[in-house]
Design goal:
The chain is of the alpha/beta class. The protein is built from 14 helices and 10 strands. The N terminus is likely disordered. Belongs to the threonine aldolase family.
């Protein structure tokens, strides 16, 4: 194993990986499911692009085909390819919110609140209301109700949007809870957005039907790189008028691109090959094996292992978390803290 670490320290050619000459460095990288290596078929899809249109004019055939494909897969009437999950979330938030003051209720652990550079506050002038789930796994309807600002009191910013993330920390949010929050949001006239970067994993793990889950939200952002292994990109889905606004704000933040088929072709291949091809379940099986091995060492988990993430509690096995990067490097691995992420790779 240790000898393989040398491969991570030098330039590695996709061609060599495709021909089986070497193993992908991603095989030893457990930091995230964003470190995957594109498969030969993903790379070949770029070469097979027949028409290089301009997506700013909605004339890139490959991109249009991807958007139509995702629309049919999810049941939403419109879609827009974006450069990243962060961009997808932020243009969605901006498209839902019109005139401030307004607030957004969300899970305190979510990507939108913690890892998007304060975008909701800057781009949408929104007050973020982070809520810590009492059960340690997911928000409940009661917690959402307790934190939504449904008042004309001029001291407060009324809640106009609820954002969920599924999975979050690898944990699947129960479909019944999503249904209840969705019904509440509709009753109050509050928009409902899902950061579904890893929603593919939810479906692969039996957490619900893709179309049904998505039907409870006004908008959803889906990622092609996390877990699926495409080089880049996400997609936002929703109603036609909403996606029209998304395209406007995507342009505003510099996300409208020209011959972007070089990104959307492998994105479609990733969905077909990894998600529809059933390969995500293998990552879940490997995560369960890691969980079992850790338990045999006397270790406990910080969060339950539902999908492809294993959250270790190092102290429970007498391990100092600060030692993880050093010890991992000795074994030829890239692993920085208590989270282990298993992913699809060539």
């Amino acid at each position: 194993m240790a000898s393989s670490s040398s491969e991570t320290q030098k330039d590695v050619k996709f061609e060599d990986i495709a021909q089986g000459k070497i193993q992908s460095p991603a095989a030893y990288d457990f930091r995230s499911d964003t470190v995957t290596t594109p498969t030969p078929s993903m790379l070949q899809s770029i070469l097979n692009i027949s028409v290089h249109g301009d997506d700013v004019f909605s004339e890139d055939t490959t991109t249009n085909n991807l958007e139509s494909f995702i629309m049919s897969l999810t049941g939403k009437p419109a879609a827009c390819f974006v450069m990243s999950g962060t961009m997808g979330n932020q243009v969605s938030i901006r498209s839902h919110l019109t005139q401030p003051p307004h607030s957004i209720v969300m899970d305190s652990r979510c990507h939108i609140f913690n890892y998007e550079a304060g975008g909701a506050a800057i781009l949408s002038q929104a007050q973020m209301i982070p809520v810590k789930p009492a059960n340690g796994e997911h928000l409940t309807l009661e917690e959402v109700k307790d934190n939504v600002i449904d008042s004309d009191d001029i001291h407060y910013a009324p809640t106009r949007l609820i954002c969920l993330e599924n999975t979050i920390n690898g944990i699947i949010m129960p479909l019944e809870e999503i249904k209840k929050i969705s019904a509440f949001a509709k009753e109050k006239g509050i928009k409902f957005h899902l950061d579904g970067a890893r929603l593919w994993n939810v479906v692969a793990a039996g957490g619900g039907d893709l179309k049904e889950i998505i039907s409870y939200f006004d908008s959803v952002s889906l990622c092609f790189s996390k877990g699926l292994g495409a080089p880049m990109g996400s997609i936002v889905i929703g109603e036609k008028d909403f996606i029209g606004r998304v395209r406007h704000f995507r342009k505003m933040v510099g996300g409208a691109t020209r011959q972007i088929g070089i990104a959307t072709a492998p994105a479609r291949t990733a969905v077909e090959e990894v998600f529809l091809g059933g390969r995500l379940t293998r990552t879940h099986e490997l995560a369960k094996r890691l969980e079992s091995s850790w338990a045999k060492l006397g270790g406990k988990l910080k969060f339950p292992c539902h999908t492809n993430m294993v959250w270790l509690d190092p102290a429970s096995a007498g391990v100092d978390e600060s030692d993880i990067p050093t010890e991992a490097k000795k074994a030829g691995l890239k692993w920085e803290f208590e989270r282990i992420v298993v992913h699809h790779r060539k």
